[in-house]
Design goal:
Blueprint lengths: L1 H12 L3 E5 L8 H11 L3 H19 L5 E4 L2 H4 L2 H17 L3 E8 L3 H12 L2 E3 L2 E3 L6 E4 L5 H14 L2 E7 L6 H4 L2 E2 L2 E2 H13 L11 E5 L4 H10 L5 E3 L9 H4 L10 E5 L1 H4 L1 H5 L6 H17 L9
Parallel strand pairs: 1-2, 1-12, 2-3, 3-6, 6-7, 7-10, 10-11, 11-12
Antiparallel strand pairs: 4-5, 8-9
Bound molecules: orotidine-5'-monophosphate.
InterPro entries: Aldolase_TIM (IPR013785), OMPdecase_AS (IPR018089), OMPdecase_type-2 (IPR011995), OMPdeCOase_dom (IPR001754), RibuloseP-bd_barrel (IPR011060)
Pathway: Pyrimidine metabolism; UMP biosynthesis via de novo pathway; UMP from orotate: step 2/2
Family: Belongs to the OMP decarboxylase family. Type 2 subfamily.
Amino acid sequence: MSFDRLLERIVETQNPTVAGLDPKLEYIPAYLREEQFRLHGRNLKGASQAILAYNKALIDALCDVVPAVKPQCAYYEMFGYEGMKTLHDTIQYAKSKGMYVITDGKRNDIGTTMEAYAVAHLGATLVDSEEFEAFGGDSLTVNGYLGTDGVAPLVKLCNERDKGIFVLCKTSNKSSGELQDRQIGDMPVYRVMGEMCEHWGADAMGRYGYSAVGAVVGATYPEQLEELRRAMPHTFFLVPGYGAQGGGAWDVLGAFDERGLGAIVNSSRGILCAWQKEGCAEQEFAAAARREALRMKEDITQHLPAITLP
Ligand SMILES: O=C(O)c1cc(=O)[nH]c(=O)n1[C@@H]1O[C@H](COP(=O)(O)O)[C@@H](O)[C@H]1O
């Protein structure tokens, strides 16, 4: 099961964090941008190639110390088909370096359309009886608020092709409580969604006690994070909101189980923009990302036991 592979990578690196690849052109050092503009033109192709070069350098700098990357599709879609090619090439490059890839698409729709999204991100497209992987990520972020028929096609592929999903449960943004904190009977909506995740995952259990159906729970709501960890013992958490959104090490500790497993904490801007924050030379951007990734690892793991598999 795909999260088994992620858990094994986390234990190997002793690092329960993921680097978010949410690149903006202004994060990319000018020399790297100009190099790609000269080769491909000052247009969507040049911009997309600059992002690819930047991502590859970051992956090279992080792959032995960070278990996973999380490219957010929106940052690639904004460059049109050239951007989508960069998303594909980034996913493939990260996998070739042994990293686990969480494609952050937050997809959801009715069942039939969801089958198409599932094939695009977790499966393979059939052309004349030959299979072609479109993007090839290991897991996908998903909006579960359309209910079971929007999630079932993904769970089927998780079982068939060793993949995983992360379902939005309690999101990190300021307005998340407008709907997610509302009560349904004696429970807030995020707890109901948590129950649904446990239920969806029951037929897709992995070796280490976590199912292929994970949940997204924001670092910016530490109390709910702790509450959901207790309520969802078989659900692995993706925890965004550390760093740029204000979450710190103490906020994320409630996401972990007694073995230091149970969650992976994301930082995107914190790692991508480390070189700008440090004020180091442009050429050092990847080394600065590695320094920040190692600092984040230490920041979180100093409060956890050595991470072990059951
Ligand atoms: O699914 C996500 O990854 C996600 C869910 C959520 O509740 N909050 C959240 O910030 N995210 C994503 O996590 C990343 C956070 O980025 P930084 O705030 O720059 O670390 C972005 O890619 C967001 O789209």
